[in-house]
Design goal:
Elements: H1 3-11, E1 21-23, H2 27-37, E2 41-43, H3 46-51, E3 57-60, H4 67-76, E4 80-84, H5 91-103, E5 108-111, H6 118-128, E6 135-143, H7 162-178, E7 184-191, E8 198-206, E9 212-218, E10 224-231, E11 235-238, E12 249-255, E13 258-264, H8 275-290, E14 295-296, E15 300-301, H9 302-322, E16 326-327
Helix pairs in contact: 1-8, 4-5, 5-9, 7-9
């Protein structure tokens, strides 16, 4: 898929691993992609790729409906898997995937690359330190357009829709900054008549301690990206939370009417728009080499996070389709 280009460029920013092979269901497409990106090997199908004995890690960037099947098959073949977000189409699939990882003693991580940009750890550090007081409200949005109805994002049975495609970032961000799982959710959506997928969805998450979050995601609107955490003593704005287009990235901290701009560097990789992908790759390679369970910075268990994110997405879609507030099942024990 088109994510190949992002990962291929990100590999150029790290020394921990090399991009060895690419696969497609069409051998000619695989060979063309390998030539275009200077990738040594082109596999004419996915079975051939996961059977390659010199490959340690599979990056599963197929459409959402193929995440579970090919992740499980890759894990069974003895490969570690970095699977693009959202990890799966349901909580049942998430459980199946992590069960396969444990059974085959391999690591599995969801590809939320934005979490590896240092601005996220810095934002979390300042919130935890109380620099904006007690967190009251979290807001975020991510919107895009330009996809036609033949795109897998319009396939309901394959995990299509705005929430699964780009709203999953907002859900992840809200949970990350709240520091806990939501207790109840409510969502409203504009559904596509022919396909049944959500084209635009707005969601509200209610957390313990009076913290609320609201987000909007859309694949039919003018592109828009931003996130903000508002507290009793200030607010923290992240202008480009998902992929900063410039370096250094910036946070804006406002207290008592005065705004401070905080510049965030990326010291461990070159300053590049694809640095979050490179940092994600570095971390996963370290986990494979050292036998450490994958974590999202700062020190968040990646498996537990993926479970919570998928559970929240499911309840939001349930709320939007049934027009009601939904209690989120507590699965923390």
């Amino acid at each position: 898929g088109w994510m190949l280009g992002k990962f291929a460029d990100a590999f150029q920013l790290i020394d921990e691993a090399a991009l060895l092979a690419v696969a497609s269901r069409d051998g000619d497409r695989a060979r063309a992609a390998a030539t275009r990106r200077n990738i040594p090997r082109a596999h004419p199908n996915y079975e051939s790729l996961i059977a390659d004995p010199e490959i340690d890690i599979i990056i599963n960037a197929l459409h959402n409906g193929l995440h579970c099947e090919w992740t499980v098959r890759a894990l069974a073949a003895g490969k570690h898997v970095l699977c693009e977000k959202p990890l799966a189409c349901s909580s049942a699939e998430v459980e199946k995937m992590f069960a396969a990882a444990r059974a085959n003693q391999r690591w599995l991580m969801e590809g939320f690359m934005y979490r590896f940009h240092p601005q996220m750890a810095e934002a979390k550090r300042r919130v935890v330190a109380g620099e904006i007081g007690r967190v009251v409200y979290i807001r975020s949005h991510r919107a895009a357009q330009g996809r036609d109805h033949g795109n897998p994002r319009f396939w309901r049975d394959a995990g299509g829709g705005a929430l699964m495609d780009i709203g999953c970032y907002c859900v992840n961000f809200s949970r990350f900054l709240a520091g806990t799982e939501p207790q109840r959710v409510e969502a409203y959506a504009h559904f596509d008549g022919p396909t049944g997928v959500d084209l635009t969805l707005s969601g509200s998450l209610q957390f313990a301690g009076g913290v609320s979050a609201h987000f909007v995601c859309s694949m039919e609107s003018e592109p828009s990206y931003a996130a903000e955490i508002i507290g009793t003593e200030g607010r923290l704005l992240i202008p480009h939370p998902w992929s900063p287009p410039f370096w250094p990235a910036e946070l804006h901290l406002t207290r008592q009417g005065k705004t401070e701009t905080i510049h965030i560097e990326t010291p461990s990789v070159p300053q590049h728009v694809l640095a979050p992908f490179a940092l994600e790759l570095k971390h996963f390679c370290h986990c494979v080499r050292e036998g450490h369970a994958p974590q999202f910075p700062p020190a968040v268990d990646a498996e537990r996070d993926s479970r919570g994110n998928m559970r929240t997405i499911e309840t939001l879609l349930e709320s939007a389709r049934e027009h009601r507030v939904v209690e989120v099942e507590d699965q923390t024990t």
